[in-house]
Amino acid sequence: MADIVLNVEVRENIGTGGARAVRRAGRVPGVLYGGTRGPVPLSVDANAFRKALFTGGLLGHRVTLQYGSETQTVIAKDIQFHPVNDQPVHFDLYRVEEGQLIRIAVPVRFDNPEDAPGLKRGGTLNVVRHEVELWAPAESIPEVLVADLTGLDIGEQVRMSSITLPQGVEPTITDRDFVIATVASSSAMVSSEADASGETAEG
For residue 23, is pLDDT > 70? Predict the structure, then answer.
């Protein structure tokens, strides 16, 4: 994915009142933390932040902060949204260094459902994990994990071992090959099979 660059300003006023003033000025307040330095309150232009968030896959990926002539590589760790209008109201960024291992949750995408016999016969995909927590070098965080549904029939599963990870990336759970999703009979299929069984018994 393309690098995301955010031009930031250091906030002088902190606390609830300061955050409200930042939002009234058309900016989103946030905090930069991590590493050996202390937390730094920041703000970003609201339009630029929304663009990065909704088109650039901001959350969970590397971001370059631009402050005057200085730059800093960070990870967007958390974003809080307004409960009514769903607009971003606060963000947390985490300082990272090249090669640093980051613990981060990455979403799972399910590809090729049209090639899964179980789904073609009316089964349903029961997703156990919509995202998987990984240990990943800061420069190798995958944007998404791809689960291939090709060939899956009723009762079969997608497990972590079937997902290809970039070099140096591994799940935080290492003691078992955990389930990502299963292909199960739908309620309609179960009902149909029960009806058929009843008719057979009556016959």
Answer: yes
pLDDT surpasses 70 at 1: no
Residue 46 to residue 69: CA distance in whole angstroms: 21
∠ CA 104-106-109, nearest 5°, is: 175
Here the CATH number for the domain that contains residue 113 is: 2.170.120.20
Say if residue 119 is exposed, middle or buried (CB neighbours under 10 Å; 0-12, 13-18, 19+). Answer: buried
pTM for the model? 0.69
Contact 90, 80 (CB under 8 A): yes
Q: What is the pLDDT of residues 50-92, one digit of tens each?
A: 988 887 667 777 788 898 888 888 888 888 998 998 889 999 9
Q: Where in the sequence is the domain holding 115, given as residue range(s)?
A: 102-202
Task: Report the C-alpha gap between 183 and 152 in whole angstroms.
Answer: 7
What does DSSP assign to residue 12?
A: S
Domain C-terminal end among 65, 80, 96 = 96
